[in-house]
Amino acid sequence: MRKFIKFIVRNIPRTYLIKFSRIFSFIIVPFYKGNNVECPICNGKFRKFLPYGNKGDNNRLCPKCLSLERHRLLWLYLNNKTDFFTAKLKVLHIAPEQSFIKRFKKLTNLEYITADLESPLAALKMNIKDIPFNGNTFDVLICNHVLEHIDDEPKALSEALRVLKPNGWAILQVPINNSFETTYEDASITSPKEREKHFGQYDHVRFHGKDYPLRLQSAGFKVVIDEFVKHFSSQDIERYRLSTDEIIYFCIKP
To answer: What structural domains and CATH numbers belong to the chain?
Structure first.
């Protein structure tokens, strides 16, 4: 299974992975029944999670809702530290994750809009560098693991800030390499093979470092750095399979 998932993640385009993932999930769930791990998003319990990623790392992907460590942590964060599930909010979700999209659509308190340049799950085709909404439109903007793909990150962040209402907030997570004090990017690196070597994935254009919150602040956001995962016991971290080095960057428009 590990080799199989590693192969499809590396060789099949993202749009096709999204289209056929639900069928794959339906088939695979019965083989993973158990009670060793639990997904707080779909409440599924399994003997373990599926492997995932370029290296096929074990025990990461929920067989039922297809959540990863970062998705499960973010779900718990939204539940415990925001009014996302209770307040009347207008939300723009860019590159909507499969584990979230149907559940967020069912929330009657949200006016929920999904957008993406390629994803078949999104209702609106949109480039984050040119968001087709007026300024001060949204209470919340969610855009996770997108900015590392964008050549002009300052423009994308400027657009995210523009469409938020004053005191609106955004979740803008990216993969962070904590061995880098500053973000590593090189526009001359263009081949998929070299990008994977330098940035960790064939379609990434940078590897964000510890300066990521400073980059968000430079765009105009007030950034609250929340090591939320530390609120959980080691048993819960293992039970939910949370990422222990994932920091939540809660970005507020002043």
So the answer is: 2-67 (no CATH), 70-252 (3.40.50.150)
